[in-house]
């Protein structure tokens, strides 16, 4: 019997392992990735979800997908606090088994029922598995989770996110550099703020005060004000369009990065910063260095860890994850047929275009779970 548990609680994991009593190996997953969960539904017997780990929208998306499967489909169990079990059981209307997270009463009954029901509809189950395995971007093979992680660009970036290195994101316009910067911040586990700014939007005469801050009296109308570096704290500062920074300001930025400290405009006090800076550009900075429009020392400093953000057409394996997130933000979910249709498109406008397509389709559809027919690539009604 195949059982998967999604939780970040070691207590919950131990409780479930104890409650299983040898009924089958339990795969404990600590990363919440909706497309992975959806691809598991036709393959496994029991899915255990720690309700504290998921939002209501995510749970509804999972249960809607599970309900769309027929025959020997997966049983979904929601683990929750004792006080809300009975109310949740009514609200979910039989789509899930709601269990007390402390006692797990009823889990054995679920497992016994799955053991008795196994093998009754295997041909149909195998056909569903084969159909899901062929979907672009979803999992195939005997270990769907590891297969997804091997193929996904985002999973590779997660490893880098957990380091403390500054990063340079390079990619086409709309390829998702700003979105990826936010994900890197989320994956990093940093406790400080996430701040983002396009350097192309900062007037050159305000660059120093915006980045470093000011002290009262530094210039006319100047007040005590922290800059972006100080405000980010131990978090992450995202500076987009680094290639647009004028040459004379590039040296000031390089000096701050090299010393890992700065001074507010009008102050003699040196302040250190411990946050991460993520730079981004759609320019060829190496060419800019050759043309003397970008300082070589600054390029060498910010490009020590460079992530080329490939256009979406080069990483179809990430389309289901992105599309599911955008649909979830709109309060809806995507069926396997909708994910398949979305994964087959090339997206000349990259992630920005994918988001527009999914959000527009969610807006125009009256269904909570969108099917392939609900996905519209046209901007015209």
What does this structure look like?
- This protein has 17 helices and 16 strands.
- It is α/β, with parallel strands linked by helices and 381 residues long.
- The strands form five sheets. A five-stranded parallel β-sheet has the order 2-1-3-4-5.
- Helix 8 packs across helix 9 (177-188).
- The protein is elongated, with a radius of gyration of 25 Å.
- The model is unreliable at 118-151 (pLDDT under 50).
Query: What is the tally of helical segments?
Result: 17
Instruction: Give the amount of beta strand, in percent.
Output: 15-25%
- The largest sheet has its strands arranged as 2-1-3-4-5
Please compute the radius of gyration using only Cα atoms: 25 Å
Intertermini distance:
47 Å
Mean pLDDT: 81
Helix share bin: 40-55%
* Beta strands, count: 16
In a few lines, what is going on in this structure?
The chain is an alpha/beta fold.
Question: Keywords for this structure?
Answer:
5-stranded parallel sheet; 17 helices; alpha/beta; 16% strand; 381 residues; 16 strands
Walk me through the topology.
Blueprint: E1 3-6, H1 10-20, E2 26-29, H2 34-40, E3 46-50, H3 56-68, E4 75-80, H4 85-91, E5 97-100, H5 107-117, H6 122-133, H7 144-151, H8 153-161, E6 167-171, H9 177-188, E7 194-198, H10 207-212, E8 213-214, E9 225-226, H11 228-232, E10 236-240, H12 247-259, E11 261-262, E12 271-272, E13 276-281, H13 285-290, H14 296-302, E14 306-309, H15 319-329, E15 333-334, H16 336-343, H17 350-364, E16 369-370
Parallel strand pairs: 1-2, 1-3, 3-4, 4-5, 6-13, 6-14, 7-10, 10-13, 15-16
Antiparallel strand pairs: 8-9, 11-12
Helix pairs in contact: 8-9, 15-16, 15-17
């Amino acid at each position: 019997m195949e059982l998967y548990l999604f939780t970040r609680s070691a207590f919950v994991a131990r409780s479930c392992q104890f409650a299983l009593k040898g009924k089958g190996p339990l795969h404990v997953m600590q990363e919440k990735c909706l497309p992975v969960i959806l691809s598991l539904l036709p393959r496994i017997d029991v899915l255990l979800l720690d309700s504290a780990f998921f939002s209501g929208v995510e749970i509804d998306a999972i249960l809607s997908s599970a309900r769309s499967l027929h025959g020997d489909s997966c049983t979904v169990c929601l683990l929750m606090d004792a006080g809300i079990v009975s109310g949740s059981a009514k609200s979910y209307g039989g789509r899930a088994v709601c269990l007390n997270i402390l006692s797990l009463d009823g889990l054995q009954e679920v497992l016994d029922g799955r053991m008795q029901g196994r093998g009754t509809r295997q041909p149909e189950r195998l056909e569903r598995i084969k159909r899901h395995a062929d979907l672009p971007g979803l999992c195939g093979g005997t270990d769907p989770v590891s297969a997804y992680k091997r193929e996904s660009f985002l999973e590779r970036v997660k490893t880098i996110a957990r380091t403390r290195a500054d990063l340079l994101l390079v990619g086409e316009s709309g390829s998702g550099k700003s979105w990826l910067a936010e994900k890197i911040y989320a994956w990093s586990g940093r406790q400080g703020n996430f701040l983002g700014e396009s350097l192309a939007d900062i007037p050159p005469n305000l660059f120093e005060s915006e980045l470093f801050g000011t002290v009262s009296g530094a210039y006319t109308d100047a007040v005590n004000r922290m800059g972006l570096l100080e405000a980010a704290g131990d978090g992450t500062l995202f500076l987009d369009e680094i290639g647009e920074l004028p040459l004379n300001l590039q040296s000031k930025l390089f000096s701050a990065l090299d010393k890992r400290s700065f001074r507010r405009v009008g102050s003699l006090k040196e302040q250190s910063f411990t946050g991460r800076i993520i730079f981004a550009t759609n320019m060829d900075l190496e060419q800019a260095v050759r043309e003397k429009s970008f300082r070589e020392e600054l390029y060498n400093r910010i490009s020590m860890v460079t992530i080329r953000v490939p256009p979406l057409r080069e990483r179809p394996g990430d389309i289901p994850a992105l599309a599911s997130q955008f649909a979830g933000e709109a309060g809806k979910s995507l069926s396997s047929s909708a994910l398949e249709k979305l994964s087959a498109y090339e997206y000349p406008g990259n992630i920005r275009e994918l988001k527009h397509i999914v959000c527009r389709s969610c807006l125009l559809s009256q269904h909570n779970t969108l099917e392939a027919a609900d996905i519209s690539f046209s901007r015209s009604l």
